[in-house]
């Protein structure tokens, strides 16, 4: 297995993590880093001990030595938790990290108490769907995808309403290492959770952006319908980055779910 090594970001000490019963691990979308959660963090941190992690080649993380699957990323999250002395935890992930949320829920029900799938899908279109973007990054780097990203990530009025947050997220895309971005695209291309959704046994929440073209509410509804006991919450007026468009709505929805 090609299990990447993840470097955690947390303000908690080793002793606090090992004894905490309220750890929440947060994962990010393709082209972003741990700062994706900054606006939601105050609300989440009021109830949880937070650990964040970067995808390989994103933020502070090195590119992985070889390609990996989302199932292997889930195993990497467990290995990170082991290193930190965390026995059980709640989890929330955006987009690709939402796929990791499903893999964690399937493979590690004894470790994950609740798993939240944020603006994600059980299937990302297969290998062919990612070929054009991979080719673009191979030829011109991640900066080349910046101009097309807002239409996928934000509701139409958001960039003008909050240009600072928009620019912050787009700068994350440009800063992502080309090889790391491509590795995650390959992982998304090979991903398909549809065959195992009915086998998940832990509580799952799906959060969808109302106008998300990348992980549509219909895709989220499929997860909520197929996973036993799962439910979906749609955040009005948001797209693929609902966690920055309406961070309080997302954070409060998550904290309510984790408290159940």
Could you explain how this protein is built, in words?
With 260 residues, the chain is α/β, with parallel strands linked by helices. The chain has a single domain, classed as Rossmann fold (3-Layer(aba) Sandwich). Helices cover 43% and strands 14% of the residues. It contains twelve helices and seven strands. The protein has a seven-stranded mixed β-sheet, sandwiched between helices. α10 links the parallel β6 and β7. The longest helix has 15 residues. 49% of the residues are buried. The model has no long low-confidence stretch (mean pLDDT 97).
Strand content: 5-15%
CATH domain class: Alpha Beta
Instruction: Give the helix/strand class.
Output: alpha/beta
Range of helix content: 40-55%
> What letter string, H or E per element, gives the SSE order?
EHEHEHEHEHHHHHEHEHH
Kindly report the spatial arrangement of strands forming the biggest sheet: 1-3-2-4-5-6-7
Number of helices: 12
Enumerate the spans where pLDDT stays under 50 for 5 or more consecutive residues: none
